[in-house]
């Protein structure tokens, strides 16, 4: 993904403790180019309008900058319309955060900790170091393409370079943690916000992993690995500045700012509802077999099922003059058995199907022409027996046009009701519009430990329309 070339990731009385010394920086940050900014917006669903967060970010960034060793530098935050959990910065000092990450933050100090961590990557010049590495890798790939006329191979190598350099080194992450904790403490925020948020990230990753393995979409944990070591260091760093519970967290002010933001997929980009995927703008839906859990990204809809099964849905352009059986045979998938190719009709739409086999997996492939696009649905199984293949065929038969009522699907949002005396996790779990484990999701969303209950009179976060 081209944008990875530019990513650097991931009041009380002032604290007079000196900040750790970062690598020296220039007195002014390099400018943000429209090309850099545009690539990021294109990859993360565009900019998301969150006026409440914009106001808080301006205040927090001003406080953090004033407390830094370079108070004349100015940082800016853009909220991205993505459900992935991510935050990162450019060498220009332009910070980005997804609405998916905003949903997991629970107070002003945690918000400041995320921004402070990204500012630390900029001040320590981690962003510049990684950008130089990626540019060098891309130069090698381009030269190889020119010498060998291997354009496709060079592009693949450029993408691999971006992925391999997407992670900061362990030492860079630890350095950014230490600088960030000291920075938010000096700015008057609770320095324990950093360790609290890292713990929330770990719990969210565990919950997500139980439902489905990472499908390769950009994720905070892929570029900011939250490890027990990092959590321990964040706690130790905070203790250098103040005792636990020494400063207010300002939870209510933050939660008011995120009330109503979209949670999960934007319906304009398609939504997962149980085992079904619906795309209101494109006007179709399909349902996965029993036991599957789906996840939507900008590249594809993917899912895992029981007994080593998987699914992938994406879209391609196929010339209207090319038949779908011929497209299946055109070589885009290895191991295709030509004798299995057959033309079919699915709910009135032209389609074709075939079987492909690899050393460990077998695949039932469907392609269906819908409007000007062709949708590919690839079902995978370790053992593609007759029963499994039948379930894949039955799933494909659910591909159809949405009704007008279905196309009017509403997005899920973060809502912030106030807990009453006697309200429990179960009280709010019943109001959570999530597919499963509502009580666990509520705890993670609100940073509640096992056995901990919401406090009467405090705002809490739930997921609902």
From TrEMBL:
Species this chain originates from: Phreatobacter oligotrophus
GO cellular component, one term: membrane
Cofactor dependence: Zn(2+)
Keywords: Hydrolase, Metal-binding, Metalloprotease, Protease, Zinc
Designated name of the protein: Putative Zn-dependent protease
PANTHER family per record: METALLOENDOPEPTIDASE OMA1, METALLOENDOPEPTIDASE OMA1, MITOCHONDRIAL
Domain Peptidase M48: 58-233
Record's keyword annotation contains Transmembrane helix: no
Record GO terms (molecular function): metal ion binding; metalloendopeptidase activity
Domain of life: Bacteria
Gene Ontology annotations of biological process type: proteolysis involved in protein catabolic process
Gene3D superfamilies named among the record's database cross-references: Metalloproteases ('zincins'), catalytic domain
InterPro entries reported for this sequence: Mito/Outer_Membr_Metalloprot, Peptidase_M48
């Amino acid at each position: 993904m081209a944008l990875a070339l530019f990513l650097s990731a991931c009041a009380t009385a002032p604290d007079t403790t000196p900040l750790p010394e970062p690598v020296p920086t220039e007195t002014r940050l390099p400018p943000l180019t429209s090309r850099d900014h545009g690539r990021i917006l294109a990859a993360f669903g565009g900019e998301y309008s969150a006026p409440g967060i914009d106001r808080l970010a301006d205040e927090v960034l001003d406080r953090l900058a004033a407390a830094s060793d370079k108070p004349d530098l100015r940082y800016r935050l853009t909220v991205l319309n993505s459900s992935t959990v991510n935050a990162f910065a450019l060498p220009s000092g332009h910070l980005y955060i997804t609405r998916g990450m905003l949903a997991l933050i629970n107070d002003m100090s945690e918000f400041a900790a995320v921004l402070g961590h990204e500012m630390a990557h900029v001040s320590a010049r981690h962003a510049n170091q990684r950008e130089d590495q990626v540019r060098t890798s891309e130069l090698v790939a381009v030269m190889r393409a020119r010498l060998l006329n291997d354009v496709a191979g060079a592009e693949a190598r450029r993408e691999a370079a971006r992925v391999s350099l997407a992670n900061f080194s362990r030492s860079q992450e630890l350095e950014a943690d230490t600088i960030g904790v000291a920075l938010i403490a000096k700015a008057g925020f609770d320095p324990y916000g950093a360790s609290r948020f890292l713990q929330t990230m770990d719990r969210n990753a565990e919950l997500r992993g139980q439902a489905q393995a990472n499908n390769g979409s950009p994720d905070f944990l892929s570029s900011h690995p939250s490890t027990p070591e990092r959590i321990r260091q964040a706690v130790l760093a905070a203790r250098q500045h103040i005792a636990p519970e020494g400063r207010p967290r300002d939870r209510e002010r933050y939660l008011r700012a995120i009330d109503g933001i979209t949670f999960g997929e934007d319906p304009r980009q398609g939504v997962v509802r149980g085992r079904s995927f619906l795309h209101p703008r494109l006007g179709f839906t399909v349902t996965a077999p029993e036991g599957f859990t789906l996840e939507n990204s900008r590249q594809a809809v993917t899912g895992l099922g029981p007994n080593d099964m998987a699914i992938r849905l994406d879209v391609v352009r196929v010339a209207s003059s090319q038949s779908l059986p011929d497209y299946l045979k055109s070589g885009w998938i290895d191991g295709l058995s030509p004798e299995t190719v057959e033309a079919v009709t699915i709910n009135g739409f032209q389609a074709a199907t075939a079987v492909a086999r690899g050393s460990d997996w077998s695949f039932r492939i469907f392609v269906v022409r819908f409007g000007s696009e062709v949708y590919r649905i690839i079902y995978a199984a370790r053992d593609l027996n007759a029963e499994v293949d039948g379930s894949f065929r039955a799933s494909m038969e659910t591909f159809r046009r949405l009704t007008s009522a279905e196309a009017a699907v509403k997005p899920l949002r973060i809502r912030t009701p106030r807990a009453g005396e006697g309200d429990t996790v179960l009280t709010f779990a019943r109001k959570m519009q999530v597919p499963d484990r509502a009580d666990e999701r509520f705890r993670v969303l609100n940073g509640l430990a096992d056995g901990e209950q919401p406090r009467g009179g405090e705002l809490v976060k739930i997921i609902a329309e």
